[in-house]
Amino acid sequence: MQRTRQPDTRNRRGVAAVEFAVCLPIIAVLVIGTIEACSMVYLKQSVTISAYEGIRTAIAAGATESDVRTTCQNILDARKVDGATITISPSSWESAAQRSWITVKVTAPGGSNTAITGWFYDTLVVDGEATMMKEF
Asked: What is the pLDDT along the chain (136 residues), one digit of tens a residue?
């Protein structure tokens, strides 16, 4: 009768360490990339919602530029968006006639609004825009 040999497990431990060393950087890059991509989706949603709520304020009767900027900024502050710029066009929309179009555009830099690193989206500028007709 022939005796079966047990595999040598001491050599297998080295293989597992090498596999771990090769896979860890790849997994880390994938996780960080996913977090950063989700952060940019959140930023895009935040500036779009801010622009939409700003335009809803702008088309209300008696709204002022200060009201619109305050509405937009409150949403940006609640979502912790830094360095945003709010643009309302036309610039004299308060005195514009009824049935004229008003646009609110909110832009924010990607680099200062990321979750982990700032270097990947450093030059990216995310914007959101909403347009509605003045009714009053």
From this structure: 677 776 666 556 678 888 899 999 999 999 988 998 899 999 999 999 999 999 999 999 889 999 999 999 999 999 999 999 999 999 888 888 888 999 999 999 998 898 787 677 888 999 999 999 988 7
Evaluate whether residue 3 is within a structural domain. Answer: no
4 within domain boundaries = no
Calpha distance 135→132 (Å, rounded):
9
The reply to whether 89 falls in a domain is yes
Which pTM does this prediction carry? Answer: 0.82
Please say whether the beta carbons of 57 and 93 come within 8 A.
no
| Number of domains making up the chain | 1
Domain that holds residue 46: 11-133
